[in-house]
Every structure is written in C-alpha cells, then in structure tokens.
Amino acid sequence: MKKIVVLTGAGMSAESGIKTFRDAGGLWEGHDVMEVASPQGFARNPELVLDFYNQRRRQLLEVHANSAHIALANIENSYDMSIITQNVDDLHERAGSTNVLHLHGELLKVRSTYNPNLIYNRTKDLNLGDKCEKGSQLRPHIVWFGEDVPMLAKAVEITAMADILLIIGTSMQVYPAAGLVNYIKPGIPIYFIDPNPTISERSFQNLTIISEKASVGVKQLIDNYLNG
C-alpha cells in the first residue's frame, strides 16, 4: 500500500469558518501576533493571551469539518496516509482521519507551564489560576513564536517515507514546516492545492499545481490522479 503524506495549513480549514492565522497587515484578530503567540506576550499579559485562545476555542467548537477534510479521511481506505498539519484545530480528526500530527500544537489541549509533558484535554475556557497537578498555571498547548517545534523530528521522519506528497492550503513560507518538502524521496509526485499558489511547477520535480480551494482541489486530486 502506497504511503501518502499530507501537509495542511490554514487554507484547509478556511471553508469550515476557521480564520486564517493573520491578515495582510500581520495582525491576528486585531492583535499583533507577538502579543498573543509568544512566551514574551504571555509573560506580559497572560489574561489577554488566555482570552484570545478562549475565543478561538469557542469558535472551533461551533464549526465542522468540511468536505476536504472528509475526502482526505476517506483516502485512508486505499492508502497508508499520514497528515502533518500546521493547524491547531481538530477538524481532521473529526472528519475521521486517524493519523494526524499537529506541528504547532492543539487548541483543545492545555499544558503545564512547569512541565510541558503535562498535557490535558480542554474544551472550556482557561483562566488565570487554573493549574496543573503540580500547582503551576496552565497555558494553551500551542507552539508560539520563538519556541521549539517538538514534533518536527517526527514530521521529518514521516515525510521521508512518502510515496506521494500532498500540500494543501499552506503558503510553504512558514518554517520549519515549509522545509519538510526537502526530506522527500527524490522523484516522488507532489500535488500542491491552493487557490493562490506561491510556487510554480518549476519549483520541484514532479510537481502538479491545482489552483483551487481545498474542497474543490482535493476532489479533483482524487478523481484525476489518485483513483487511477
């Protein structure tokens, strides 16, 4: 059974109503990203940061997996598939995908500020004073700017096993995630799905670009390239 590795970004979840990470001005929901997505921002104003992620978490609980998420999950019937996502939502899992690695953390989890290995599921708001079993404040289980990406080595290992690489809804400009493509086996087919592709078919060997939003592009991919 061939191994498909899928790299997904914000464009994968946009059709579910999840807003992309930041707008053209570099703001995220009106905030400078360093205010709400850095250890320094959390140290300066933890209440602002917790409230920001509480709002994101509430929004996530109101949306649903879209047809692209569901179509990818169905591919598992025919391929050995792993998804490596930059998204912090759980929409891949809700659609039925069983092998999902979150590079940048998960919105529905929180962790201890004392021990990053103390991780807890969380669907309700997180507030100052909410503590781990060791008595330390809990924080969002999100990889912030300036922090290590603990799942990166595992993502490299998975990417290196790919027989087919799919890239969906990501600009391929956010590192270290964008660097994963450098670890694929030479010559394997790469499919890039994005309505505004930031790379050309000269960028990589055996690259096919599908200039569509995720729902349309994944269907075209399956119909035209994977079902044959």
Folded structure, characterized:
The protein is of the alpha/beta class and 228 residues long. Helix 5 (67-75) runs parallel beside helix 8 (214-226). It has a six-stranded parallel β-sheet with strand order 5-4-1-9-10-11, with helices on both faces. A three-stranded antiparallel β-sheet has the order 7-6-8, with helices on one face. The radius of gyration is 18 Å and the shape is elongated. It has eight helices and eleven strands. Helices cover 29% and strands 21% of the residues. It has helices at 10-13, 33-36, 39-44, 46-62, 67-75, 91-95, 152-159, 214-226; strands at residues 3-8, 27-28, 31-32, 80-85, 100-102, 105-112, 119-121, 138-142, 164-168, 190-193, 207-210. It has two domains: 1-17 and 66-104 and 148-228, Rossmann fold; 19-62 and 107-142, 2-Layer Sandwich (SIR2/SIRT2 'Small Domain'), CATH 3.30.1600. It starts with a strand and ends with a helix.
The first-level CATH class of the largest domain is given as: Alpha Beta
Low-confidence stretches: none
Described by the principal axes of the CA atoms, the overall outline is elongated
Element order, helices and strands? Answer: EHEEHHHHEHEEEEHEEEH
In DSSP terms (H or I, runs of 4 or more residues), the helix count works out at 8
Q: What is the SS-derived class?
A: alpha/beta
Spatially, the strands of the biggest sheet line up as: 5-4-1-9-10-11
- Assembly type of the chains comes to single chain
CATH architecture tag of the largest domain: 3-Layer(aba) Sandwich
Number of strands: 11
Count of domains: 2
Classify the beta-strand content into a percent band: 15-25%
Summed over residues and divided by their number, the pLDDT gives a mean of: 91
What is CATH's topology name of the largest domain?
Rossmann fold
Taking the sheet with the most strands, its summary is: 6 strands, parallel
Distance between the termini: 14 Å
* Helix residue percentage: 25-40%
Give Rg in angstroms: 18 Å
